[in-house]
Amino acid sequence: MADSINNSNKSNKKKETQTLLLGRYDVGKLLGHGTFAKVYHARNVKTGDSVAIKVIDKEKILKGGLIAHIKREISILRRVRHPNIVQLFEVMATKAKIFFVMEFVRGGELFNKVAKGRLKEEVARKYFQQLISAVGFCHARGVYHRDLKPENLLLDENGDLKVSDFGLSAVSDQIRQDGLFHTFCGTPAYVAPEVLARKGYDAAKVDIWSCGVILFVLMAGYLPFHDQNVMAMYKKIYKGEFRCPRWFSPDLTRLLIKLLDINPETRMTIPEIMENRWFKKGFKHVKFYIEDDKLCNVMDAEDDVGSVSDQSMSESESEIETRRRAATLPRPASLNAFDIISFSPGFDLSGLFDEGGEGERFVSGAPVPKIISKLEEIAKVVSFTVRKKDCRVSLEGSREGVKGPLTIAAEIFELTPSLVMVEVKKKGGNKEEYDEFCNRELKPGLQNLMREESESESAAVAAAAAAAAAADLELPPHLPSDSE
C-alpha cells in the first residue's frame, strides 16, 4: 500500500516537472494553434500571473526559411509596447522550441462579439479609438501591421482592445528605394485596393484602410465588400463599391467614405482621423510609461506626476517644502565598494559627467530633495513629464519618434551620509536627442548644483578610497592618496 502511494507521489511530481516550462511557467490548456506554432495558457509560478505562451517549432521554421521572420517579430513586439497592444514579456528557447511568453488576454477575440450582431455606436467608437491609438503608436515607430481584422483584435477583462498577431507586420527598413512595400499580404476582405494592384503601397495607408473595414463591420455586423466569389469581391474592393446602412449617422458615413477611399493619396491619415468629429467624441489620449520593464498607466501614478515649483514660493516657504520632502523621502540606496568600482573605472567619481558607458553620473553634497527639485525644474523648461518614486525620477518628452519619446531615468545613491551620486540613463528614445538634451539642459543644470558643493570632488575621492579600503582592494596608480 505504502509503495503504491509513493509511486503515485513520484508520478505526480514527474508530471508537475514535465509541465513546468524551464522551471518558471506551469503550462496549462491549449488555446489555439497554427502551421508553425501552438499557444498555451500558463501560470508564472513565482508571481501567480497568467500568461500565454506561443510555442514555435524550430525545425518547421528552419524548413520554411522563417528565421528572419521570427527575429523581426520579436524586434517589433519589443518596439511597440502600448496598453492596446498585446505585450511580449520574454523569449526563451531550447534546442527544439522557441517560446514567446506573452500577455494573456482573457476576453477573447473581438470577432466573437461582432459575430453575435452589430455593436452599439458608443461601444464601436471606443474600440475604434483604441485601435487607432495603437496603430498610430506603431506607425510612429516605423511598424506596420498589414493584417488588421477583428480576429487579431482581442479584449481584456476590462473590455479594452488589444492588437495581436504581428506575424505579417513590416518595419520601415524593408521599404524599397521607391519608398513603398511590395509584399502581397493580408486577409482578402480587409486588404486595400493598392495591395491588389501589386504595384507597391504605403503600408500606413493600407493599415488605415483595414481600420475602416473594421469600423464598418463593428457598426454594420457585416463586411462592406463581400461576395461568394473572391475575384468578384476583389473587383468591389478595387472600385470601392460599398453602401452604408441607414442606421449609420451622417458623421460616421462621411468618416467611412474617407477611410475607404480607393486613392491612398487622399485617404485619411492618423492625425486627420483623430481630429474627426465622430472620432473625437469621448476620446481620451492613452497616457502611459515604462518602468522596471513594465507598462504603467498614468492614472495609476497621478500622485507622482508633476511637482510644486520652488520658484513660485518665498524663500522660507521653499525651505519648509525642502524639509517636508526630506522628511517624506526614504533614504537613498547605499553603494558599497564593488558598486563604486563597477560604476566608474579607476574610482573617477569627480563632479564631472562620465562620458563613457551607458550612464552618466555626478557626485553632490546637495540634499536629495534639492536634486529632485532641480531635475523637475529642468524638465519644466523643456515641457517634459516628471514621475517620481522614492529616490528615482523619470523625465519623459512628448515628441514621438521611431523609438518613442525620449525617456530619461535618474536615480540617487548614497556614497556617505553627506554625499550622494546621481546616475542618469536613457531609457527610451533617440540617442542624438538624448545627447542634445544632456548637453543643453541636464548637464548645465546639474553642474550648478555641484558648484554649490565645493567639497564634492575631494569627498568623492575619499569615499572611493574608503570603499576600497573596506573591500581590501588596491587603489589604482592615478588615484591620489591622502599625502598628495
UniProtKB/TrEMBL annotation:
The chain crosses the membrane at residues 206-225. Residues 330-354 form the NAF domain. ATP binds at K54. The keyword rRNA-binding does not apply. GO terms for molecular function: ATP binding; protein serine kinase activity; protein serine/threonine kinase activity. Keywords: ATP-binding, Kinase, Manganese, Membrane, Nucleotide-binding, Phosphoprotein, Serine/threonine-protein kinase, Transferase, Transmembrane, Transmembrane helix. Residues 25-279 form the Protein kinase domain. Its EC number is 2.7.11.1. The keyword Protein biosynthesis does not apply. PROSITE patterns: NAF, PROTEIN_KINASE_ATP, PROTEIN_KINASE_DOM, PROTEIN_KINASE_ST. It catalyses: L-seryl-[protein] + ATP = O-phospho-L-seryl-[protein] + ADP + H(+); L-threonyl-[protein] + ATP = O-phospho-L-threonyl-[protein] + ADP + H(+). CDD domains: CIPK_C, STKc_SnRK3. Its cofactor is Mn(2+). Gene3D superfamilies: Kinase associated domain 1, KA1, Transferase(Phosphotransferase) domain 1. GO terms for biological process: signal transduction. It comes from the Eukaryota. PANTHER family: CALCIUM/CALMODULIN-DEPENDENT PROTEIN KINASE KINASE-RELATED (PTHR43895), CBL-INTERACTING SERINE_THREONINE-PROTEIN KINASE 12 (PTHR43895:SF140). Belongs to the protein kinase superfamily. CAMK Ser/Thr protein kinase family. SNF1 subfamily. CIPK serine-threonine protein kinases interact with CBL proteins. Binding of a CBL protein to the regulatory NAF domain of CIPK protein lead to the activation of the kinase in a calcium-dependent manner. This is non-specific serine/threonine protein kinase. It comes from Cephalotus follicularis.
